[in-house]
Amino acid sequence: MFVLVNLKTYPCDPVAVADAVRDVDESTDARLAVAPQAADLARVAETGVETWAQHVDPIEHGSNTGHTLAESVADAGAVGTLINHSERRLKLADIDGSVRAAERAGLETVVCANNPEQIGAAAALGPDAVAVEPPELIGTGTPVSQADPDIVEDAVEAADNVDSEVSVLCGAGISTGDDVVAAGDLGAEGVLLASGVAKADDPQAALEDLVDPL
Ligand code: G3P
């Protein structure tokens, strides 16, 4: 299972969480990675943890102000990027452009979507993976695998119908090892989570619990 920890703009110490993710990654068969804010990418990557961006823009080098360039993200040490997170929604053409920009920079891509219909559309753009996250469950602590298991199974089917090479992650409310196992049982190849680790008093203990049953 792939466990991608999105730090959003939570007031955690990104390097401390990155150290914890790296240490737990070394003790499990699961693949762990962390997605800090763009400004923190370089110092997080320096810890040796697998580092992801939260977003890249559909742009190239040039006259763009206030944007995130995929090449800069890669230069900072990121190996992948989220695209179209529900807190950073893009128009369809811009999702496509961001996937192309990420590919150009050699970044792995996970395109997020709200529901199975959007997952099918996202998979058609050829990312490495898609992630289904019902926005109403984000940050609630109620796992999507429990509150709405059908949405995960339907997302897996929708992606598979479009492109069987595109793997499916799920997210929203995931905070325990049981939640991760349940996601895997529904066909997801990984999970996207944030508050369960970024807001935990002890992020390392939260991560250890997450991967314990894997
Ligand atoms: O990107 C992960 C996310 O949106 C889920 O957040 O806090 O419910 O794990 P959370």
TrEMBL record:
GO cellular component, one term: cytoplasm
EC id: 5.3.1.1
Matching CDD domains: TIM
UniProt main location, coarse: cytoplasm
Keyword check for Magnesium: no
Gene3D superfamilies listed in its UniProt record: Aldolase class I
Entry-linked SUPFAM superfamilies: Triosephosphate isomerase (TIM)
Keywords assigned: Cytoplasm, Gluconeogenesis, Glycolysis, Isomerase
Active site per database record: H85 (electrophile), E133 (proton acceptor)
Protein name as it appears in the record: Triosephosphate isomerase
Organism: Haloterrigena turkmenica (strain ATCC 51198 / DSM 5511 / JCM 9101 / NCIMB 13204 / VKM B-1734 / 4k) (Halococcus turkmenicus)
